[in-house]
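cache lookup: miss for this entity combination. No prior model stored, computing from scratch. Input as submitted by user K.M.:
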Amino acid sequence: MTPSWIALIVLAIAAAGFVLARSRALRAAAREGRRLHSLPGYYGWTAALYAALPALLLLAIWLVAQPAVTRMMVWPVLEAEASANAVPSLMMADVQRLAAGLDAAVETGRLSREAARDLPAGEMRAAMAAQGVALGSEVTSATRDAALRWRRLAGVGHLARTIAVIGLALAGAAWGVSRAAPDFRARNAVERAMRGTLISAALIAILTTVGIVLALIFNTIEFFRLYPASEFFFGTTWSPSFGGGSELGILPLLWGTLYISLIALLVAVPIGLFAAIYLAEYAHRNVRSWAKPMLEMLAGIPTIVYGLFALLTVGPLLVEAFGRGGYLGLGWMQGGTAVMTAGLVMGIMLVPFVSSLSDDIINAVPQSLRDGSLGLGATRSETIRQVVLPAALPGIVGAILLAASRAIGETMIVVLGAGAAARLSMNPFDAMTTVTAKIVSQLTGDADFSSPEALVAFALGMTLFVITLALNVVALWIVRRYREQYE
Amino acid sequence: MTDIPQTGPLPDGQTGPRPGSLLVTDDRTKRRNRAEARFKAYGIAALAIGMAFLAALLWAILSNGLTAFTQTYVQLDVPLLEEKLDKDGDRDPAKLAKVSTFGYAPLIEQALVEQVEATGVETELAPKALSKVLSGSAAAQLRDRVLANPELIGQTVSVELLASSRVDGYLKGRVSRASLARDKNLDAEHLDLIDAWREAGIVEKRFNWSFITGADASDSRPEQAGIGVAMLGSLFMMLVVLVLSLPIGVAASIYLEEFAPKNRFTDLIEVNISNLAAVPSIVFGILGLAVFIQFMHLPQSAPLVGGLVLTLMTLPTIIISTRASLKAVPPSIRDAALGVGASKMQAVMHHVLPLAMPGILTGTILGLAQALGETAPLLLIGMVGYIATNYPEGVAEGFLSPNSAMPAQIYEWAKRADPAFYERAWGGIIVLLVFLLAMNLIAVLLRRRFERRW
Amino acid sequence: MNDMRTMDNTVLNETKITARDVHVHYGTTHAIKGVDVDIADRTVTAFIGPSGCGKSTFLRCLNRMNDTIPGAVVTGKIKIDEADIYDSRVDPVQLRAKVGMVFQKPNPFPKSIYDNVAYGPKIHGLAKNKAELDEIVEKALRRGAIWDEVKDRLHAPGTGLSGGQQQRLCIARAVATEPEVLLMDEPCSALDPIATAQVEELIDELRQNFSVVIVTHSMQQAARVSQRTAFFHLGNLVEYGETGKIFTNPEDSRTESYISGRIG
């Protein structure tokens, strides 16, 4: 039985439980001449929840666990052959495809149950081709045995799954119905269940973080087993080659990341800050009402658009000015993709980010401080520079840190605008690359996921995650403390 | 406030500790006022630069992208010769289907030659070279038409065939005679022909519906590429995001805002959520790759996986905005419900949640808009590099079979070598921005319509 | 301080501020409706009246703080020492150095006590060097009657002081720019009775050097600290005269109603 059928049956049992429990509660109340503790619907819901929740949970766990368990049990059959040649994950994939093909063949009637079991390894590939399942190579006897074992285990597993899940649903429903009596506090039970649901929804946030950390840590450890950590952190050369002998030093990537972020902040912070000051302190209400949303439009534009803008508009423009034969006659720039290109465009992207955060923060400075300063005969700019900004400084530092974290983690602009060459150079018109850009290029290539060239992406991701997390934690802490000061 | 210095003696009878009349601005004040004016000018300049950035961006998008919405077509009278297409003359569909596009190409070439003669253009181009003005898909286009309607065989039909991307570029001003010098796909001689045909009304630019509804095409046929299939991919992804993130986000927010006790565990969840909102999106891509594809073996490039990743990414945003909406409902509402004997859960579900709903929906729409434009995580789960040439066959396939998504498709086009694809990429951006604008507009209207002041 | 003082303080100093036919509009609200008043030098003048009567608005006209509120329009003439402060040649920045202001809520800057007081002298360039500035700060703090309490912690943040101390610091800050007029907008409304008494004592001392205008909610306070009192009602100046006379023998029935607590 397929999982969706099982789920449907469970839901049907839950519905039946609802009806039974509700009517039982009503009948019991009428017989005993008492009032129900809760509305009758709650008794129904109790039974339905007892029936559906544990059963569906079991089904979900089973769906995730069964393939993993089966793989573990089939593996010994393949082990001997694996040590000799091919990559384990690919062999396992072949086994699974073969097993699925045999299933399909039996289902369509092309092979009988017995024939499927007894088919020699040599004939399997042809049989599968007839079924429309393409296999990479001739089927070895170990693969055949493994596939047959897979089928057997899967069959047993599926049967057990059906029985266990439906049995659990029936038991839950029965228990729920049996409890439907006037003095049972059904509403409280239902609300406890709802509360549990709410808590598990909130826990997804934690699960996501745990998932990120686990995904990064396991693969990073795997990477450091294949490639020394000291060379990764302190190496100054980045030259992956899928044939082996890669040099995977993170320093050139970190340099490119920081250089681009620095240029982005040099663009975004003054412009964003002054725009925020103007909007908060000088602008007429009418100007503010259209200028602020316009500026924030920049924040709503997807980063792919900025990437394209860097690649196709800003890059060529910069080359025209700074490139060889450009009208400034400097010849500093070789191609359109460069640190400057990505940095400038990223700066544009960050302007609204800096300005709207600063705007909030400047507005949180109490008006009484401005009045005090103006009342002493200070000009507006003196008031802003000497009273408002110092008071808002922690918040603004927090905003800049958040912007820096954004810049470091930004991907699309650097993938399209910064170039692919990893180098340690001071020239901002050189093409360089960043941590994020290399995560993309190492994971979208054709590399096997178990090679150091692909696994390095996880170590890069880990580095990125740690840096941005640290920046965020510090920034959020500063901003929160700042807000509390004036609340 | 003026800088006009007053001449003449100062009025006497000053009693203040400092000399100087209010009517005379002293030097120091003048200097301070100049500093004030400068400071204000910096602010205006910063705002103006910000606006200029926005204008430059919009100009780049519109000037480069609008041309993608028109496409050049060539009007030809093609004789559908029976002896080439249906030797037996029995119109058997199975046999007709066996004639490949190679069977149709000569017919088109012949039509081109005839058209050259009919319009009286002098050209030295061979018939084979003539067909370079048409898209490589022209023969397939004709074949599809014949297979759909076999009765046409034997007649001469007037068809509009897609012009090649170079010809299209020439009409749009992207390709010039000078730029063709190094291009083996088209010669200046073709352009003479096109000029003549343009005057005769045979070559024409029309609105390009197939860009909006069509599928992506191979590297060599930019004129045929459309964003329709990727749009569908995005739609399926957004459905997944909506169905998952709205209930989960609302449930999590209700718990945190209404039920959670103030303890370290709650603090942990809160800090977690605000940090997750600032984690780089590429990290969510790594998570999706490791968990959904490597560990759970879900299909690569599938909108389902994309939707799951984007859900995890959008959840913090939705939770933060939902909590703000719940917080905006005044406590008196809760007290009133509790006062008539409702349980806390009933007070929240029957009173607080409905009142907060407009705010929640606004936040959700804005979260969806953010997810719709997100590209980086999609790169890692294989939604780029997959060429979306076919529409999904059904709803289940829509979620599970490989597809692209709008931003991924735009990225894909931006990476291709032929600059004709850049126009498509900018055009794709216009389509994407129209969607984002619409979503934001809905959010703003929703807020205006239901905004409540307590 | 005793209430007898108001009786024997009938000597009128020369006029410092003259206001004629002053109107203030906020958008469509007509907040001040044609006020005429003469404010004497070296005297404490109190503005009293029910909330929303315009007394604070009028006070803010005297150093053009209303300029900082978008939509506020002031018409009429206000002269300080014969110079019209709404003349186009007058720089409000320069004016405010001459007409200092203390606000309802103590609003020390988030800086040290020293920097709070030195702020005004610094921006107006009153000190040539550090020693001079130190001197100005000390003098101002002494005038603000807070020197003894803070002289050992001049570099501690001003926000760390108690409410009454903060308000006296703000007064010292206003005094440091050597103003001729000191405007106080309900300076004691956020203070406890002991701090209020200290500030009131200080106001009485400030009379030696400045023309002080104080807006207050409390009639007792007006009676205690001022020599002259102006009663505002609904944007009009109803009655203006010797404090003793206003409180004992008002001419206008509205003043009498307010004093006796029937309106307010």
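stored under new cache key. The radius of gyration of chain C is 18 Å.
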